[in-house]
C-alpha cells in the first residue's frame, strides 16, 4: 500500500498507529479488578513529564494497522475493550468504535480529553492534564474523572476539574506511581476531608501484571 493511501486511511480512522494490544485486568478507577482487552494507540502531544508510556508519544514509531484487524483480535478475548494511549482522541475513533459496537462489545476510553470526542463510548475515563485542558463536550459526557496527584498543587487542579464535569461523574484521586509513598497519605487525608472523592490506585502494578 502506498504511503498516501495509508495516510488517507489513518485520517479516516480505518487504520490506526497501534502500539500494543493485550488482555489483562483493569487496574484503575471504577472498573478495577475486571478483565478487559486493552488497545493502546500511539501518538500524544500532551506531554506529561511523569508519563509511564512515553514510548507511545511518537505515532511514527507504531505501524498503521487496519482497524478491522484490531477489532478481530479484540473480540477473541473479552466483552470489554479499553482504548488508551498515548492520546487516542488524536485520531478519529468513529470507525473503530462502530466496528467494536457492531460485535456487541462494551467500549471504554481513557483520555485526557484534549481533542474532539469522536466515537461511541460506554464508559469515558477523563484524566485532564494542565498542559492541554479537555474540551467542553468531554466534561459533560465523562463517567469518571481520574486526577493524577504528583504534588500538592494537583489537589487544586483536581477541584477545578471536578467543578466542570457532570453531576454523575465519579471522582478519583490517583497517586502518580513514582510519588506514591509521599502522596498516598496526603490523598487519604484529602478524601477523608472531602468525601466526594475516592482513592484510585494502580492495582495492576501492585499485582505485577501489564
TrEMBL record:
<feature type="binding site">
    <location>
        <position position="84"/>
    </location>
    <ligand>
        <name>substrate</name>
    </ligand>
</feature>
<dbReference type="InterPro" id="IPR058240">
    <property type="entry name" value="rSAM_sf"/>
</dbReference>
<feature type="binding site">
    <location>
        <position position="48"/>
    </location>
    <ligand>
        <name>[4Fe-4S] cluster</name>
    </ligand>
</feature>
<feature type="domain" description="Radical SAM core">
    <location>
        <begin position="31"/>
        <end position="210"/>
    </location>
</feature>
<dbReference type="Pfam" id="PF04055">
    <property type="entry name" value="Radical_SAM"/>
</dbReference>
<keyword id="KW-0460">Magnesium</keyword>
<keyword id="KW-0411">Iron-sulfur</keyword>
<dbReference type="InterPro" id="IPR024924">
    <property type="entry name" value="7-CO-7-deazaguanine_synth-like"/>
</dbReference>
<keyword id="KW-0479">Metal-binding</keyword>
<feature type="binding site">
    <location>
        <position position="40"/>
    </location>
    <ligand>
        <name>substrate</name>
    </ligand>
</feature>
<feature type="binding site">
    <location>
        <position position="86"/>
    </location>
    <ligand>
        <name>S-adenosyl-L-methionine</name>
    </ligand>
</feature>
<comment type="similarity">
    <text>Belongs to the radical SAM superfamily. 7-carboxy-7-deazaguanine synthase family.</text>
</comment>
<dbReference type="InterPro" id="IPR007197">
    <property type="entry name" value="rSAM"/>
</dbReference>
<keyword id="KW-0408">Iron</keyword>
<comment type="subunit">
    <text>Homodimer.</text>
</comment>
<dbReference type="InterPro" id="IPR013785">
    <property type="entry name" value="Aldolase_TIM"/>
</dbReference>
<keyword id="KW-0671">Queuosine biosynthesis</keyword>
<feature type="binding site">
    <location>
        <begin position="50"/>
        <end position="52"/>
    </location>
    <ligand>
        <name>S-adenosyl-L-methionine</name>
    </ligand>
</feature>
<keyword id="KW-0949">S-adenosyl-L-methionine</keyword>
<feature type="binding site">
    <location>
        <begin position="25"/>
        <end position="27"/>
    </location>
    <ligand>
        <name>substrate</name>
    </ligand>
</feature>
<keyword id="KW-0456">Lyase</keyword>
<comment type="pathway">
    <text>Purine metabolism; 7-cyano-7-deazaguanine biosynthesis.</text>
</comment>
<protein>
    <recommendedName>
        <fullName>7-carboxy-7-deazaguanine synthase</fullName>
        <ecNumber>4.3.99.3</ecNumber>
    </recommendedName>
</protein>
<feature type="binding site">
    <location>
        <position position="51"/>
    </location>
    <ligand>
        <name>[4Fe-4S] cluster</name>
    </ligand>
</feature>
<feature type="binding site">
    <location>
        <position position="210"/>
    </location>
    <ligand>
        <name>substrate</name>
    </ligand>
</feature>
<comment type="function">
    <text>Catalyzes the complex heterocyclic radical-mediated conversion of 6-carboxy-5,6,7,8-tetrahydropterin (CPH4) to 7-carboxy-7-deazaguanine (CDG), a step common to the biosynthetic pathways of all 7-deazapurine-containing compounds.</text>
</comment>
<feature type="binding site">
    <location>
        <begin position="127"/>
        <end position="129"/>
    </location>
    <ligand>
        <name>S-adenosyl-L-methionine</name>
    </ligand>
</feature>
<keyword id="KW-0004">4Fe-4S</keyword>
<feature type="binding site">
    <location>
        <position position="44"/>
    </location>
    <ligand>
        <name>[4Fe-4S] cluster</name>
    </ligand>
</feature>
